[in-house]
Amino acid sequence: MDGFFLLNKEKGVSSNFVVQGIKKKFNFKKVGHLGTLDPMATGLLIIAVNKATKFSSYFLNEIKAYSAEVTLGGSTDTDDAEGDFLYQKDINLSSKKVLTSLNSFLGDSLQQPPSYSALKHKGKPLYKYAREGKIIVKPPREITIFSIENTNFKTPLLSFDITCSKGTYIRAIARDIGELLGCGGYLSKLERIEQGCFSIKSAKCIDKISKDHIITIKEAFPNLDSLSLNREETKIYTNGGIVTSLYGKKKIFKIFSDINQFIGLGEVGDKGLKLKQLV
């Protein structure tokens, strides 16, 4: 049993809680998730089990999409609805101004990570410092907002679907649009709806998921072409050598052995095929 589960995480539980639930339910030895969702958030949580955990890094950089709700007219210390209010105020904003401000976040920008986050400082998560009253400020990080769709504003709630790069905090978007509008803002709802080629439409609740729902490692890379090796090439590849007979433009492939067995991922370059990750 090596592969991935698509979980629909419920509100109020941590991503690690889901990981431990899957581990206990199926008695798996190794289980991990491919991108944290805060306890307040719901939606798609990809779970890797057993040998699939070795392939986790290939998913962490993928584009993600969320359905979000921001409440304008207040600010919290966590930038979401679970924090303590720093201030609240009445607002009188037009939909045009709010939506124009929201669309200004499209494209590349620098984003200041929230003080309450899992980013680490000297090996310790920022949220642990924040709970101790010590606010650690991390340097802004480059992010990209690819699209903002299905926007709607009805005072004080702003809702939208957003597609973004790795490392984007939607809580920070809520905070920053509140600052831009001069009224404060915090994230009140969040659902992850896509990650890479995976969608919430295929996800299951933890109590309804079974081993029949596992996605094999090779099935998890539908966008990669396949490359079949002969016996000698298979031996070189599995031993970590470079298969010089297979060269070309730099590209990652799903690799199959001489007996048509999926054995991992490899990268073809101008010097040949080299091992990226072995099953």
Q: Tell me roughly what share of residues is in helical segments.
A: 10-25%
What would the CATH topology of the largest domain be?
A: Pseudouridine synthase
Rg, rounded, reads 22 Å
Shape: elongated
Helix count from the secondary structure assignment: 6
Structural class: alpha+beta
The second-level CATH architecture of the largest domain is 2-Layer Sandwich
CATH class of the largest domain: Alpha Beta
Low-pLDDT runs of 5+ residues are none
In N-to-C order, the SSE pattern is: EHEEHEEEHEEEHEEHEEEEHEEE
The fraction of residues assigned to DSSP E strands is 35-45%
Largest sheet, in brief, is: 10 strands, mixed
- In total, how many beta strands? 18
Structural domain count: 3
**N→C terminal distance:** 12 Å
Question: Could you give a quick summary of the protein structure above?
Answer:
The protein is α+β, with helices and mostly antiparallel strands and 279 residues long. The protein has six helices and 18 strands.
What does this structure look like?
The protein is of the alpha+beta class. It has three domains: 3-62 and 197-219, Pseudouridine synthase; 79-187, Pseudouridine synthase; 226-278, Archaeosine Trna-guanine Transglycosylase, Chain: A, domain 4 (Roll), CATH 2.30.130. Helices cover 18% and strands 37% of the residues. It has six helices and 18 strands. The protein has helices spanning 15-26, 57-60, 95-103, 126-131, 170-181, 231-238; strands spanning 3-9, 31-33, 42-49, 64-72, 74-76, 85-88, 107-111, 120-121, 124-125, 141-154, 157-164, 185-195, 198-199, 215-216, 226-228, 251-256, 262-269, 272-278. Strands 1, 2, 3, 4, 7, 10, 11, 12, 13 and 14 form a ten-stranded mixed β-sheet that branches. A hairpin with a 2-residue loop joins β12 and β13. The longest helix is centred in the N-terminal third of the chain and has 12 residues, at 15-26. The model has no long low-confidence stretch (mean pLDDT 94).
